[in-house]
Amino acid sequence: MDKEKLMNKAIEAMDSAYAPYSNFRVGAALLSDDDVIHMGCNVENAAYGPTNCAERTAMFRAIADGYKPKSFKAIAVAGDTEDPISPCGVCRQVLVELCSEQMPVILVNLKGEHFETTVSELLPGAFKL
Ligand code: THU
User: Fold this and answer.
1) Which end of the chain, N or C, is surrounded by fewer C-beta atoms within 10 Å?
2) What's the whole-number mean pLDDT along residues 90-95?
3) pTM higher than 0.90, yes or no?
């Protein structure tokens, strides 16, 4: 896996964010096992609740394109934060559902800092059926 490339794609995906309410752009780049990169951005809504985070946009996009749950190798997430961005609880739950437990999650900010973790480290004891 080319980690640098995935991180750069996550930063690139920030450009597509629709974030007129928070003005906080987030990008995600999800790598599938055939080495395709699925990009996602946050998409906000005037009613706030329907807002979709970048991570979920990337995952839902890949699933809608026919990729199967757990067929992903890594995800990078980028935001203009002090420390590398930290995914919200809803996205952590969706990562658990659609990605394997040991899949790397690479969190990035625009200062070039990054932190690598895994799906299960982000949500220990996750609810599953
Ligand atoms: N957001 C993401 O897209 N991913 C995260 O991990 C954290 C938050 C978005 C949601 C909303 O559009 C904006 O950032 C501010 O919360």
Assistant:
1) C
2) 98
3) yes
